[in-house]
Amino acid sequence: MALRDVRALVFDVFGTVVDWRSSVIRELEAAGARYGVSADWGAFADAWRYEGYLGGIAKVNRGEWPFMTTDELHRRKLEELLPQYGLGGMPEAEREDLNRAWHRLDPWPDSVPGLWRLKQRYVISTLSNGNVALLVQMAKRAGLPWDCVLGADVLGAFKPKPEAYLAGARLLGFAPGQVMLVAAHKADLRAAQAAGLRAAFIPRPKEAGPNVQPDLEPDPSFDITARDFLELARLLEEQAA
Amino acid sequence: MALRDVRALVFDVFGTVVDWRSSVIRELEAAGARYGVSADWGAFADAWRYEGYLGGIAKVNRGEWPFMTTDELHRRKLEELLPQYGLGGMPEAEREDLNRAWHRLDPWPDSVPGLWRLKQRYVISTLSNGNVALLVQMAKRAGLPWDCVLGADVLGAFKPKPEAYLAGARLLGFAPGQVMLVAAHKADLRAAQAAGLRAAFIPRPKEAGPNVQPDLEPDPSFDITARDFLELARLLEEQAA
User: How many CA atoms are closer than 13 Å to the CA of A52, on its beta-carbon side?
Assistant: First the structure.
């Protein structure tokens, strides 16, 4: 199938659509200030994301842990991190609210205008390891105009399992080759391609903190590489012309 | 929980948000015209809906048929109806397109402005026996601004099974009492209430054809009865004031 057969664009969310790190650091700083604690909140955010979330998904995908939602994976790691960072006395309601920092992530500057433009020609949906409730709250706050919200709890699997990508295409009513994953992460894109989807790479150089060196090199094995969602829209419009 | 605790409005779709009967009759008339066939297209639409769709769901819910999507239930009945109405020679691509008439249903006049207004205060989502692909295509064509699209294929059950309502609340991240079903059909609302949801009744006197007498009487056992979605928004805003 050619690129002009693509009918739906499905998006990785954390890092690709929203700037998780700055947003989470902002909420951790505010929590720290309430308790008179200062700490390396970037390191807290990185541990929450890389060990808690990505590490937890890897455990679920290896069968070591039962399936749980992203909200639950975040909460589990939060319990471990709070006492390490001098916030062990935080009461339950405040913990639950801080856990929802992941519902309040800011979009990259091009995300909202880019999605509106892409939505004119394509079905646009999340294809995220986040859970639906988290993704819906995030979209409402940030103004992300999704046609559909698909998360791991309705896909029935976490990416990079092939089932997650295939369930996305099936639920949207398209063949895998009619669906293109848009993501900032090469491993996600490669897994989507292995499942038969198309792949658009959007490097996000500001996603990672100083402790992670992201792989931002263009890779000709992807169908498209674009600087942001507006350039992606332009390139797709040229392909269709 | 009080009415002011409601955080999400979930909507029945066929009949409540969109006028399935006029829309389907319009497509059947066009198909008939292409083949020089005239027939009682209202009776075709009614059989498609009441025997094919609702009858099929009842069979799935009784365990007589395996789960299948609404697109599949519609297609199954279409195969039976086409030869009965002189359209047995229709080729496959045209059948498949006619089956997607259910993706192209027109909204009631208040649906789009009402949903935009309700969306300001609430998470608004479908809670439909339709499948996600059908609901997404319908929303894109009609301009229905859903925050989330939930259909039987992600809910894991057809209404009026309690699991369908409970899955909707769980996926949106709310307790059942924080979610209100908006529907034109009392049986749907009663099943939602039995599962712990709130219920708003919107009678739609123009939904049914001449062969069905809908029950449009107000019923005080529902939390709200409103003439349309704009009145529903007004009544909810008053409750919250």
Answer: 24
